[in-house]
Amino acid sequence: MSDSLKPSMPAYDRYVLVCTGKNCTRHGEGLALYEALKTKLKQRGLVDGNIKIKRSQVHCFGVCTGGPLLCVQPDGVWYYAVDDEKLDTIIEQHLVGGKPVAEWVFHE
After folding, report:
1. What InterPro entries does this protein map onto (predicted)?
2. Among positive and negative, which fits the CA dihedral 54, 80, 86, 98?
3. Which pTM does this prediction carry?
């Protein structure tokens, strides 16, 4: 038996996973998107406000095309070719409004 303590996690409304691997984008666009997401979530009060969003980076989703890729859980919605402008729309319509932006979804 292990003496490890059972971990606990704060309750989040959604988790946003961003691929920062080198196969999705060649010039670090995934990592830049991940950092931009941090700033945008803080600016909108979505880190510790009424709506709580947790962001995490993932090394590889195994898709390797169409990046930067972003996945919203627990909704199971996958976005492709996410740039700064699309990120703003995804935050407002999906993360805040609860409605995925269908035109940028490649998998559900």
Report:
1. Thioredoxin-like_sf
2. negative
3. 0.90
